[in-house]
TrEMBL record, chain A:
Belongs to the MIP18 family. PANTHER family: CYTOSOLIC IRON-SULFUR ASSEMBLY COMPONENT 2B-RELATED, PROTEIN AE7-LIKE 1. It comes from the Eukaryota. InterPro entries: FSCA_dom_sf, MIP18. The lineage of its organism: Eukaryota, Viridiplantae, Streptophyta, Embryophyta, Tracheophyta. This is Protein AE7-like 1.
UniProtKB/TrEMBL annotation, chain B:
This is Probable cytosolic iron-sulfur protein assembly protein CIAO1 homolog. HAMAP family: ciao1. SMART domains: WD40. One of its GO terms (cellular component) is cytosolic [4Fe-4S] assembly targeting complex. Belongs to the WD repeat CIA1 family. It comes from the Eukaryota. Keywords: Repeat, WD repeat. InterPro entries: CIAO1/Cia1 (IPR028608), WD40/YVTN_repeat-like_dom_sf (IPR015943), WD40_PAC1 (IPR020472), WD40_repeat_CS (IPR019775), WD40_repeat_dom_sf (IPR036322), WD40_rpt (IPR001680). One of its GO terms (biological process) is iron-sulfur cluster assembly. Essential component of the cytosolic iron-sulfur (Fe/S) protein assembly machinery. Required for the maturation of extramitochondrial Fe/S proteins.
Amino acid sequence: MTLGLINANPVVHAKKERVARTEDLHGDDALSVLSEESITVDEKLGRILITFTPTIQHCSMATVIGLCLRVKLKHYFPPHFKVDIKVSPGSHANEESVNKQLNDKERVAAALENPNLRQLVDECLYSNEL
Amino acid sequence: MDFSEEGLELKEIQRLEGHNDKVWSLAWNPTSTLLASCSGDKTVRIWQRSPSTSSWHCKAVLEETHTRTVRSCAWSPSGKLLATASFDATTAIWELIGDDFECVSTLEGHENEVKSVSWNASGSLLATCSRDKSVWIWEVQPGNEFECVSVLQGHTQDVKMVQWHPIMDVLFSCSYDNTVKIWAEDGDSDDWHCVQTLGESNNGHTSTVWALSFNPEGDKMVTCSDDLTVKIWDTDSITMQAGEGYAPWKHLCTLSGYHDRTIFSAHWSREGIIATGAADDAIRFFVESKDGLVDGPLYKLMLKKEQAHDMDINSVQWSSGENRLLASASDDGTIKIWELASIT
């Protein structure tokens, strides 16, 4: 809902598969969630669009994955860059709802202040580094 | 007031630094001698202008009270109290005692983040709203006691802002559910209930409504949204002035094509200039266009200040003083004081 000005020939910086390991709520063995992302960066405007594809249509971790991506991107780009995150069209049952949450910066800020959620995000990112 | 012939520019008067995180909201006290700002750094700062140098400095930092982002702040009409709403689910009430601000009360009850707080015109009531989808109304009692008199359910999602009407005790709220709801007291039973919902079917917004603001007369309202539009609404002022209670609001016009990112704030000045602050780092000014069209008033873009900040603008607030002073708050951690002045 926000990216009318991405240039006509976007530079795709990265298209990669990411495996995020998380422990599911019942403390069983780590559940691995696969998602594929594509990132479009418009350096002149300072805008980034990242779309990711959770491999499960009803993936309940979609918003967490999106949060992880936001936190990760913050480290790679200057603070004034504006990041929009979406699930790739058709890849998730609650696409609109997930996209809306991930792009509501007040919701994102509050979520990251929640210690449990923050810990989950940190764990996802940390395990990714390995 | 006709602004179309004036050559106006937005002059930066001063940049206020100090907060260590996003500045979410601003509030001028009633005499506009103090400016309160609240931030993701969990503090509230009070800024004052020095009479000798005419420059603004930080008079106080209200800290060690809220344990999470402070999202919104509002002065009571008397200017003696400041209410601050936080993601820590509480609303704190601060009183200026001598030269210091002290937290005199903490309002608890919301289940999660409190997003906004507003005082009614007489200062007898306070309203708060939250991600828990509810709007609470509190009665101000002697000794800085606050009693919750109503918990209003109706929004189906996170409530972003509450604002009391400038004259009547009618409460407005706007939400992530894309609607604006209007709440009034039932004459006989003192029960508060939703008297109107402005949604898509009433030409309402199609995404989160972030803010609303009234014109000084209280017969028009501006709303701004994630749907990239600003909407103007009006009500029957005769019914309103006659004290007949609440009269319905209707859509007047939609300003679209001016913003390409979420508009977080809109504020209507005493002279009728609407300022907006958006996620594209720009401040825009809209005024009524008196082009003599038969169909009624239109609003036009009077001025746009691009790159007003380095990051998203979260709040724009006109001072209530004589000169056209505007304060803006940004994700970049700074606040700027501007003057809308004639081009020299």
